[in-house]
Amino acid sequence: MLTLDEVVVAAGHTAGELRARPQQVKPSPSADRPRTGDLCLAGVRVHVPATYRADRPAGLLVMLHGAGGDAEQALWLVKQFAADENLVIVAPKSDDTTWDALRVGFGPDVALIDDALAAVFASYAIDPKRIAIGGFSDGASYALTLGLANGHLFRTILAFSPGFEAAPRSDGDPRIFISHGTDDRVLPIQRTSRRLVSALEQRHCDVTYYEFSGGHLVPAEALRRGFALLPRAQA
């Protein structure tokens, strides 16, 4: 039987609500230095840069793969920024071939991400002003959906070639970056990002939009422009 707290959390997950929040993590003695590198926390791939220090809170990026993809693909796309940006990367794998809200409604994927965030927040010092969510293709659609629904947690959303957003509510005022290729034949730009950006701007969202000549991919310039929007790491 579920406890009352478990029932409340489960209800939040079906509404797309993430409840995990950063905690104050005290610097550990050198003998108890937190683990860095490629880790698995709460069943999710997590990368903690070797430069991490508990006395210098890191940023955090939840990075979501596209349909049929996996955590490794999402992590590979952005891992290069981890050290320079002092950024912990959380790369979950969807329960099915794509994310729950894009199939049947919020549920197991929200719960997985929430548990992973709780594990990271309990072990690492994370700057609450530098928490972002991003993704490619279906992962970008899900990043927009979860990011807009949890805007007080995610300050920035990076959506590379999204199809749509389906947030049940808007929470907070996150900065949004969207990129899309003009020759995309998987998610044609005219019926996806161009419509999406227009709708978000009509809602007075803070959107930065970048179109590039190319197909369904994430070029280096799109990554550079997206990561430029993240709040800077403290020196």
Q: Could you walk me through the main structural features you see in this protein, from its secondary elements to its overall organization?
A:
The protein is α/β, with parallel strands linked by helices and 235 residues long. It has seven helices and eight strands. It is 30% helix and 22% strand. An eight-stranded mixed β-sheet has the order 1-2-4-3-5-6-7-8, with helices on both faces. The longest helix has 16 residues. The relative contact order is 0.15.
Q: Which keywords apply here?
A:
235 residues; alpha/beta; Rossmann fold; eight-stranded mixed sheet; 7 helices; 8 strands
Helix and strand topology:
Elements: H1 4-14, E1 37-41, E2 44-48, E3 58-64, H2 71-78, H3 82-85, E4 87-91, H4 108-123, E5 126-136, H5 138-149, E6 156-160, E7 175-181, H6 193-202, E8 206-212, H7 220-228
Parallel strand pairs: 3-4, 3-5, 5-6, 6-7, 7-8
Antiparallel strand pairs: 1-2, 2-4
